[in-house]
């Protein structure tokens, strides 16, 4: 490239750091009229910039010096972040681009970025060191397992038989997986050596798996139990099975009885910050099913992108699904010199829902409101903007125009139309509405909001947020749906106690919600966020605003182990969820690296009883599971 950008730490204080930015013109051409755009993870203090002007929208900074950038010369500028010291290279500049104006228009020129110089040494990256695999490497650990002598050999005429409608989906999933594994057809028929049998005496979600010399039998009383039995059977398949030698393909004889610890076991995937192709999403869902997760939480909208087709407002995907240097929505994070984006059509979403349902997974859509709505607002300003609102605020992600206005009619028209289509598309009994990170000072200068506050006797912005969310909750209730939200959904004390709260800030916030009468799902950033770095080296991909989460820490997460909770408190914990936020996850390789192998650890935390979990035993079983990932070519952290 003809241009290079360096970032160096030059001063570090406890809560403020100063940086030197150096832009090199390595070409033989003088640049007269130019702007430098670059993305950073933190807010640049405007008054700290040594010269020139710098504006920031989200992660995108735009710098102008007002001076030419001559050939073989450089520009030097300093600025500060009011933040804790950086410890990871990922906290540097993610991407950069020059916007050069000539007589023919504006050209976007990519700029090479170098690794941030943190000004300090960091530890070496710790490799993943595991013992030899066990003979049987099931994750999560089943409740009870007896290993018997012998193996069940899959013969040429092997088939799958099911005697109940509740077993149908699981049988079809097993057929797909076995056929793919063996590279030949293993069909669902009237009779077969692999049988799925109904037993009404078993508790919901419980299953039994019996592998003998002559048959495999999965017994359950409901769809969930059959799905979990199939998931266990799939993990018993030999990793190195070859279609050339399927006659010798065999499964160890075992007797397993099993059921989950928590009823809700989920993973959230952020597809708004970076768009993930359909195949990537479906492959993840298949891995979740193998590990007995039962909910896929799909984060479809945010400031940086709107990813779901809404027929009532085609602008949401025509405008809101795309960002770039010449788009309505500016670039963010990566790909600053070109367009990034995409969205899921309704047919795409139906495909994902059907794919997940076959594997016993409920797909929960999230439409994040009233914050994190910049993509929607930029797409529909005629509906969602109150021109007289002069409120000044800044969200935690550095946006000043990303909050829906609860005082104008257009907001409710928009929300009802969107959620009507979402409810029609998704069979899930749950709809997630986000509700997080609405900043202070929002709506303070909105005439419509101030009038609403006066009419209702509201005291502050939290009351207004609660007013809007209660409206949405009632709308969803009328459609037979339960509203879910991040822990801020309870702000303003307007939503009902039927709302299921997902707590992310820390466990204490979860305990506060419990004692305020809410059921919760735990998703603490310090334990379950897969975008957190997995090691203490500066080279480790990820962020660490919540914590660094090595594999061992993820495995040892035990809800409220350091809190004074009662049995009644704990009964309001409906489950655990992990999450992959994707500000910096934009490739298949990084996607896999951030998820694996920690997903195995969290799967066992969600499923297996506390007294059954053993770190040393888990490591041996994980060693065997990594051979399966190797077979698929998955780029897990090694």
Automatic annotation (TrEMBL):
Listed InterPro entries: Beta_hexosaminidase_sua/sub, GH, Glyco_hydro_20_cat, Hex-like_dom2, HEX_bac_N
Pfam families hit by this protein: Glyco_hydro_20, Glyco_hydro_20b
Catalytic-site annotation from UniProt: 437
Endpoints of the signal sequence: none
Enzyme Commission number(s): 3.2.1.52
Domain named Glycoside hydrolase family 20 catalytic: residues: 262-609
Residue ranges annotated for the Beta-hexosaminidase bacterial type N-terminal domain, each copy included: 136-259
Family: Belongs to the glycosyl hydrolase 20 family.
Name of the molecule in the record: beta-N-acetylhexosaminidase
Gene source species: Enterovibrio norvegicus DSM 15893
């Amino acid at each position: 490239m003809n241009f290079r950008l360096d970032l160096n730490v030059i001063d570090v204080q406890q809560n403020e750091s100063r940086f030197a930015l150096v832009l090199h013109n390595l070409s033989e051409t003088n640049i007269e009229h130019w702007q430098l755009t670059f993305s950073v993870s933190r807010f640049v203090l405007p008054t700290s910039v040594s010269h020139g002007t710098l504006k920031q929208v989200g992660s995108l900074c735009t710098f102008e010096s007002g001076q030419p950038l001559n050939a073989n010369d450089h520009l030097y500028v300093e600025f500060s972040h009011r933040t804790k010291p950086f410890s990871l290279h990922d906290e540097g500049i993610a991407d950069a681009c020059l916007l050069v104006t000539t007589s023919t228009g504006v050209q976007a020129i990519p700029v090479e970025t170098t690794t941030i110089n943190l000004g300090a040494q960091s530890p070496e990256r710790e490799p993943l060191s595991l013992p030899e695999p066990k003979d049987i490497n099931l994750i999560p650990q089943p409740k009870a397992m007896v290993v018997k002598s012998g193996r069940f050999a899959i013969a040429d005429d092997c088939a799958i038989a099911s005697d109940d409608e509740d077993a149908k989906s699981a049988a079809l999933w097993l057929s797909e997986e076995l056929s793919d594994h063996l590279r030949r057809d293993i069909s669902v028929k009237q009779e077969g050596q692999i049988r799925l049998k109904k037993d009404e005496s078993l508790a919901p979600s419980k299953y039994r798996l019996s592998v003998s010399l002559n048959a495999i039998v999965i017994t359950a009383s409901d769809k969930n139990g059959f799905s979990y039995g199939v998931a266990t059977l799939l993990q018993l398949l030999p990793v190195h099975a070859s279609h050339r030698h399927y006659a010798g393909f065999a499964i160890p004889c075992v007797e397993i009885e099993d059921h989950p610890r928590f009823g809700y076991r989920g993973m959230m995937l952020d597809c708004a910050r970076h768009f993930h192709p359909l195949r990537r999403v479906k492959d993840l869902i298949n891995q979740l099913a193998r590990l007995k997760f039962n909910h896929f939480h799909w984060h479809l909208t945010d400031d940086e992108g709107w990813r779901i087709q809404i027929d009532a407002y085609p602008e949401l995907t025509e405008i809101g699904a795309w960002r770039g240097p010449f788009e309505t929505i500016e670039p963010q994070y990566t790909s600053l010199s070109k367009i990034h984006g995409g969205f899921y059509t309704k047919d795409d979403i139906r495909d994902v829902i059907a794919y997940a349902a076959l594997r016993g997974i409920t797909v929960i859509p999230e439409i994040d409101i009233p914050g994190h709505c910049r993509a929607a607002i930029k797409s529909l300003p005629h509906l969602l903007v109150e021109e007289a609102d002069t409120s000044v605020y800044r969200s935690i992600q550095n946006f000043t125009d990303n909050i829906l206005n609860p005082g104008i009619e257009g907001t409710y028209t928009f929300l009802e139309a969107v959620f009507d289509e979402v409810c029609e598309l998704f069979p899930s009994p749950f709809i997630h509405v986000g509700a997080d990170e609405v900043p202070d000072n929002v709506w303070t200068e909105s005439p419509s909001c101030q009038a609403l506050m006066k009419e209702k006797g509201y005291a502050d912005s939290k009351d207004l947020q609660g007013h809007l969310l209660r409206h949405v909750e009632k709308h969803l209730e009328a459609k037979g749906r339960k509203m879910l939200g991040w822990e801020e959904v309870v702000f303003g004390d307007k939503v009902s106690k039927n709302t299921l709260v997902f707590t992310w800030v820390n466990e204490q916030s979860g305990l506060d919600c419990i004692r305020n009468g809410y059921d919760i799902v735990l998703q603490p950033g310090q334990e379950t966020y897969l975008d957190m770095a997995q090691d203490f080296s500066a080279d480790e991909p990820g962020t660490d605003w919540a914590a660094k989460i090595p594999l061992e820490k993820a495995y040892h997460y035990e809800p409220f182990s350091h809190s004074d909770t009662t049995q009644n408190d704990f009964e309001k914990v409906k489950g655990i969820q992990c999450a992959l936020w994707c500000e910096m996850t934009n490739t298949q390789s990084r996607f896999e690296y951030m998820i694996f192998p920690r997903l195995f650890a969290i799967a066992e935390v969600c499923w297996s009883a506390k007294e059954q979990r053993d770190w040393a035993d888990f490591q041996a079983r994980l060693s065997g599971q990594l051979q399966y990932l190797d077979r698929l070519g998955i780029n897990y952290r090694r």
